[in-house]
Amino acid sequence: MFYRIYRSFLALSIISCALSVSLSQLFLLLSFVFFLFLPEKPNFKSPLVKILFLFYAWQIVTVLYHFAGSGFDTLSIKHAFRDEMKDIFLVTAFVSVQGIKPEDRKYLYKTFFIFALVIVFTGFVSIFSMTRLSRLISDLYKTSASWPYQHHYGKITNINIYLPIGLMNTHLTFGGLLAFIFPGFVFRLYDSWYKKESISKISTNTILLLLVSIVFLFNNARSSLLGALVSTIFGIYILVFIDKDISKKMLKRIGLFILLILIFVFVGYKTTSAVKRVVDPLFGGEKHTDSGRTFIWDSTFPLIEKNPIFGIGSGNYQKEIEISRKEKEKENKELSFFYEVTQRGHAHNDYFHLTAVFGGPQGILYLILFGIILFTLLNGNIPKKIRFMTYGLVGFFFSGLLQCYFQDDEVLIVFYFLLGYLNLYAESEQKTIDSKIEG
């Protein structure tokens, strides 16, 4: 009985990641509680588990270090868990997935696919919605004091087009979720072609890929687009050089499909203002934040230089970046306006932010985590369908070059669910290796 309740809450948590972060975290908490009551516990032996343990162990070490440095002031702990450390709870998403029985892994696969479908369809609907769809969820438990409007792109014929964010609150968060699911739809269509499935299945997968592509293009989160592109290229690399599945004929078909999409976008760019306003920022046109990031990074580097081992401490970034920014203004008076107006909530780069807050060892551990994910996916023993579903994990580390997605709990919870799902198969592989050694 405990297992069925646990499995239901786990599925609800994954699907509700597309609906509401509050709902998803509530269901995650419930699934984790019932996971603890399961009679059979998984054996955590894979490299992914070990690196995650070290990753968060170091974070706790830095929190204790700064707690001691503050004269054992409890405010130091409160500030730490009010900011970066608050997301340590989300690693339970990774742990909770490990309770799924082997016969229910297909059930979990379907759950992730439903999550992906909700993202696509809510995103597509929000393209045509003047107000944010998140009101559909928030109005269930609170009264809206105002009507939050969406960014208006323009018109295609007589239809108003808006920046799609699905049921999320920001387009960057929604872009992060799209980056996770986009490669899955690409390779789902490829798999249909490769297996020569029915015309109806191929057509359905083609339509889904077209829909997610349109939503992703209009969402315009370039950091996420970069991540999705890298994930897709990584998947193609495996198919060509490791699986050796893609023939020259298939490459020509893929190239033709991409060419048709580019022609479609080009025609839209030339004929409608809405598409033009979407495409221009991708190539540096219109208003964008590229220059702002450089000022944020420049202000973050001194924090890393002064605190290379234990960092500035969780909860201290906004205070310390303010001091660093003021010093930079004195050094570069002609640029003081730009240092003053740029956003300072985080470093706009996961690697810089984690290193600044928790020190150099944390940055190294983050890179090792990335390396282990790559190694796991490059291992030919992971089933193709699972690889296709989890390729977005690779792009996550590239999106983090331009955005702090590791600090976004709505994106991070999905990261850990997918990583936990990949780890199910990594653990199976580890058991096979251990049995061979013992034999």
TrEMBL record:
<feature type="transmembrane region" description="Helical">
    <location>
        <begin position="202"/>
        <end position="219"/>
    </location>
</feature>
<keyword id="KW-0472">Membrane</keyword>
<feature type="transmembrane region" description="Helical">
    <location>
        <begin position="411"/>
        <end position="426"/>
    </location>
</feature>
<feature type="transmembrane region" description="Helical">
    <location>
        <begin position="254"/>
        <end position="272"/>
    </location>
</feature>
<feature type="transmembrane region" description="Helical">
    <location>
        <begin position="107"/>
        <end position="130"/>
    </location>
</feature>
<feature type="domain" description="O-antigen ligase-related">
    <location>
        <begin position="208"/>
        <end position="366"/>
    </location>
</feature>
<dbReference type="GO" id="GO:0016874">
    <property type="term" value="F:ligase activity"/>
</dbReference>
<keyword id="KW-1133">Transmembrane helix</keyword>
<feature type="transmembrane region" description="Helical">
    <location>
        <begin position="363"/>
        <end position="381"/>
    </location>
</feature>
<feature type="transmembrane region" description="Helical">
    <location>
        <begin position="225"/>
        <end position="242"/>
    </location>
</feature>
<keyword id="KW-0812">Transmembrane</keyword>
<feature type="transmembrane region" description="Helical">
    <location>
        <begin position="48"/>
        <end position="68"/>
    </location>
</feature>
<dbReference type="InterPro" id="IPR051533">
    <property type="entry name" value="WaaL-like"/>
</dbReference>
<keyword id="KW-0436">Ligase</keyword>
<feature type="transmembrane region" description="Helical">
    <location>
        <begin position="9"/>
        <end position="36"/>
    </location>
</feature>
<feature type="transmembrane region" description="Helical">
    <location>
        <begin position="388"/>
        <end position="405"/>
    </location>
</feature>
<dbReference type="GO" id="GO:0016020">
    <property type="term" value="C:membrane"/>
</dbReference>
<dbReference type="Pfam" id="PF04932">
    <property type="entry name" value="Wzy_C"/>
</dbReference>
<feature type="transmembrane region" description="Helical">
    <location>
        <begin position="172"/>
        <end position="190"/>
    </location>
</feature>
<protein>
    <submittedName>
        <fullName>O-antigen ligase domain-containing protein</fullName>
    </submittedName>
</protein>
<dbReference type="InterPro" id="IPR007016">
    <property type="entry name" value="O-antigen_ligase-rel_domated"/>
</dbReference>
